[in-house]
Amino acid sequence: DPNALAETFRVILCCKWVNCFKIFNQINHDDGLILRLSELHRKAQLWRGIVSIALIEGRNLIPMDPNGLSDPYAKFRLGHQKYRSKTLSPQWREQFDLHLYEETGEVLEITVWDRDTGRRDDFIGRCQLDLSTLSKEQTHHLELPLEESRGYVVLLVTLTASSHVSIADLSVTPLDDPQERAEILRRYGIWKSLSNMRDVGIVQVKVMRAEGLMVADVTGKSDPFCVLELNNDRLQTHTVYKNLNPEWNKVFTFNVKDIHSVLEVTVFDEDRDRSADFLGKVAIPILRIRNGEQKGYLLKNKQLTGLTKGVIYLEIDVIYNTVKAALRTVVPAEQKYIEEEPKVSKQLLQQNFNRVKRCIMVLFSYGTYINSCFEWESAQRSIISFVLFVVVVWNFELYMLPLALLLLLYCAFSIKKIYYSSSFLQDSEPKGFMDKLYAIQDVFISVQTALDEVASYGERIKNTVNWTVPFLTWLAITALFLATVLLYLIPIRYLVLAWGVNKFTKKLRDPYMIDNNELVDFLSRVPSDVQVVSRKVLECKACGAHWIICHINVKHILSVT
Questions:
Q1: DSSP, res 161
Q2: Can you give the CATH number for the domain in which 206 is found?
Q3: What phi-psi label fits residue 137: left (phi over 0), alpha (psi between -120 and 50 degrees) or beta?
Q4: pLDDT tier, 296 (very low <50, low <70, confident <90, very high otherwise)
Q5: Quick one: which of 86, 74, 98 has its CA closest to 152?
Q6: Do both 137 and 179 map to the same domain?
Q7: Residue 341 located in a structural domain
Q8: 466: exposed, middle or buried (C-beta count within 10 Å: 0-12, 13-18, 19+)?
Q9: How confident is the model over 325-344, as pLDDT tens digits?
């Protein structure tokens, strides 16, 4: 939370400034010691090491719920840093990276809580770990007993020294020094590819200035400062007061642990008596950075879907090891722990629905094109498709599958057609209340219908296995037995050829035949759970009659029974 972070920085800076005056009064004035507020601000943000915690599990925890179970989660605290696990299970299996600052202690506090929906969470226990007792650059397997409770927490802790994390003025730029740049290039050279796999590279960000920012104060000005975030690493500039065109001229250096990370630069307006106001934000993928190029980035809104007022000028350099970057691509990405809680939004629901709809329509268009070949809408296209199908199936080998994907990627690269929707960067035309109401209603109806279809087919597959309709299950057994015999006796290549020939010639053999899918037709005969309940036969023992109830409400049937 940038607001909480700014508040924390103000507390730290005030404390450090008081200490500076005490030290200054105690020493000889001839030493010429001068401590600047900006230097204290810089030191308060830098860390001297990283504490990597792999939270494994909790054992023998006290059950806090009436059912004899719990929904436990863990909280970490190291100095002013606070994190919590997101998994409500004693098998947490989560990774955390905490920063070890110069000015904070080395005692890690862990508390375990039981999540209770609708009321205050229950405290289970706590434990503490003195990090100064652990050796660095080594993973420690620890089982920490909980105080004030039974049970203990199992975790892996690794202390690593931090490098290349800094804040400096433009006059002190690490990558502009030829010797230091050469040393960094050697550190991330090809011969260092197998050392310290989590250290992929570094990124240096020069925050120059911003222009035309929004007015946030009643005076017609703003007090802007920048917050830079790379995954869970977070640094910020000083505040330029009463200025809509601030100049920061600061250099920030981050470790890159994942080359696919996104650098987020957010501009806030500082308010002394309340939370900081949002002014604008940009998100820059590391892989899209062009080294040494100073660019002006248009600021966007919080959701990064539309533009807001202002431009920020940045110059970014990135140096990384290609082998490490490739190997880190196939491991789980670092989880961001400082995130806003998701909120219910009709606009977001409609936007996500339209995104899914577009993906489905693309697949549907491909399916329609393939089906047009089967329907012989174009004789030339169908003949070419049929010959190509026969040749590929007859000569197919397993190595051709990745080769086909390579050809597909090459064709896409050669054509270089990039479809980009500008709707994410521009606000749509204003709609009336009724138009919005009908749009939301259409979304809910479509989602409701789609969920019903998915649930129905899942229940039909389950009911086939459960012998809900014995005739259909016996039919499925017969078909599966015949398929087993055919697959055992006939090579799969010939079966695929037979299927393709049948699909291509079906329209030629019978021009008026209705196309169908045998599997879907079979499943449509199997009743879903709703249909099973609605067609349930209820016997009236008093009169000996049978009532066959069809298509009635499920809750009503359950209440009658």
A1: E
A2: 2.60.40.150
A3: left
A4: very high
A5: 74
A6: no
A7: no
A8: exposed
A9: 999 898 888 776 555 656 77
Domain co-membership, 446 together with 522: no
Q: Which residue, of 123, 144, 161, is where some domain finishes?
A: 161
Bin 79: left if φ > 0, else alpha if -120 < ψ < 50, else beta.
left
Kindly report the average pLDDT of the chain as a whole number. Answer: 79
On the question of pLDDT at 483 being above 90, the answer is: yes
**pLDDT of res. 442:** 82
**In this structure, is residue 218 part of a structural domain?**
yes
Q: What confidence score (pLDDT) does residue 321 get?
A: 93
Q: Quick one: 101 and 135 in the same domain?
A: yes
Q: How far is CA 561 from the centre of its chain?
A: 46
Domain that holds residue 205: 166-328
**Residue 338 included in any domain:** no
Residue 154 has pLDDT above 90, yes or no: no
Q: Where are the alpha helices (DSSP H) in 55-210?
A: 178-187
Read off the pLDDT of residues 17-29 as tens digits, 9 standing for 90 and up.
Answer: 334 334 334 434 4
Helix H or strand E segment including 158: strand 152-161
The rounded distance, in Å, linking the Cα atoms of 124 and 59 is: 12
Q: How far is CA 452 from CA 349, 469, 502, 530, in A?
A: 18, 21, 33, 10
Structure tokens at 90: 């004693």
